[in-house]
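Input structure tokens:
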């Protein structure tokens, strides 16, 4: 749902165009029939305007207008027409598949999508209405994204799906791409950000080596607090302020408090540290990652033992594993639908009838 509203917001922000003859006359209120169903012009115009905007963003400084752009070896005019039609077909295909699978929204969900659409439409009503896009069409577009997600879940849910994703696939992805760790970073910089040298550097490295040894059987949280207090003391000395030790009381912290969950290529930790973490087995034993600016003592644990984390990540992992496959299915369903054009509407809403507001 959030994804849909972001796309709609982007459309509204970028849309500075109006249609010639924007008012939909009775004979052009629909663009024709797709799969035997009348398609409101507003739905077609929403997608036409969106595709136009995206195509215009590809224009280079050397090109005088959007019509000089080529996309996928097509002229801008042909690409906008083809892509708009495909997006509308996909909308219809999703609606039909939603019904075919016997899916439905609860009354609460219906009200939520209706209210969300009304709010988003109100924020961009001038731009949308100028382009012939009414609230009913807009609401249908918002609901379609929710139907897309519902169908996806119906196909791939690991327990109830038509083509369920195996738990073993989810587990493998988690082990390969998500790490559950505890970490102490011993900086090789002083309070002002300068790299330590000589005895000061050696002292910091030896402290890290001490943590490595002690982490085998001591409370990791206590070691985290020990290093934290060392940093606080150094900062106080640097600024001439009073140092107050922060006491560690293990009873104040919930289980897993000191654990971090990091995803591969997320930038949560420096790349060199990340590579070492994912190269190391998740056996809970401490290991050292040596860097030019810090030494890190790390424990990596078995991510599969955290059922709460597994449940949180499972929906997004399934989308990663099956997202492209489902898009191909959606395209296949759309390509199976024929259009019976309303020729007057086809002419009226042709790509070059979209006028850029000066």
């Amino acid at each position: 749902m959030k994804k849909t509203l972001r796309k709609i917001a982007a459309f509204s922000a970028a849309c500075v165009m109006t249609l010639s003859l924007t008012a939909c006359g009775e004979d052009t209120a629909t663009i024709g029939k797709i799969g035997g169903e009348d398609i409101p012009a507003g739905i077609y115009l929403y997608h036409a305007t969106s595709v136009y905007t995206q195509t215009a963003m590809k224009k280079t400084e050397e090109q005088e207008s959007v019509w000089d752009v080529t996309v996928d070896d097509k002229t801008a005019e042909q690409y906008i027409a083809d892509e708009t039609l495909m997006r509308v077909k996909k909308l219809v295909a999703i609606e039909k598949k939603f019904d075919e699978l016997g899916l439905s929204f609860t009354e609460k969900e219906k009200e939520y999508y209706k209210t969300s659409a009304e709010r988003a439409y109100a924020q961009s009503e001038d731009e949308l209405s100028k382009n012939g896009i009414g609230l009913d069409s807009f609401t249908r577009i918002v609901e379609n994204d929710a139907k897309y997600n519902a169908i996806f879940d119906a196909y791939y849910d690991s327990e109830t799906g038509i083509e369920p994703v195996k738990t073993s696939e989810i587990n493998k992805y988690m082990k390969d791409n998500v790490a559950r760790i505890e970490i102490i970073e011993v900086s090789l910089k002083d309070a002002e950000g300068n790299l330590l040298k000589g005895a000061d550097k050696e002292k910091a490295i030896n402290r890290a080596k001490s943590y490595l040894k002690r982490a085998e059987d001591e409370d990791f949280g206590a070691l985290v607090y020990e290093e934290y207090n060392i940093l606080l003391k150094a900062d106080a000395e640097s600024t001439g302020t009073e140092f107050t030790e922060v006491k560690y009381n293990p009873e104040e912290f919930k289980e897993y408090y000191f654990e971090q969950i990091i995803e591969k290529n997320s930038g949560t930790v420096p790349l060199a540290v990340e590579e070492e973490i994912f190269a190391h087995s998740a056996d809970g034993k401490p290991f050292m990652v040596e860097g030019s600016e810090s030494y890190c003592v790390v424990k990596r644990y078995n991510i599969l033992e955290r059922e709460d984390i597994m449940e949180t990540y499972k929906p997004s992992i399934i989308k990663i594993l099956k997202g492209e496959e489902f898009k191909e299915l959606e395209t296949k369903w759309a390509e199976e639908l024929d259009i019976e054009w309303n020729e007057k509407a086809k002419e009226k809403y042709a790509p070059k009838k979209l006028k850029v507001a000066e």
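The chain has twelve helices and eleven strands. Residues 12-16, 18-24 have pLDDT under 50 and may be disordered.
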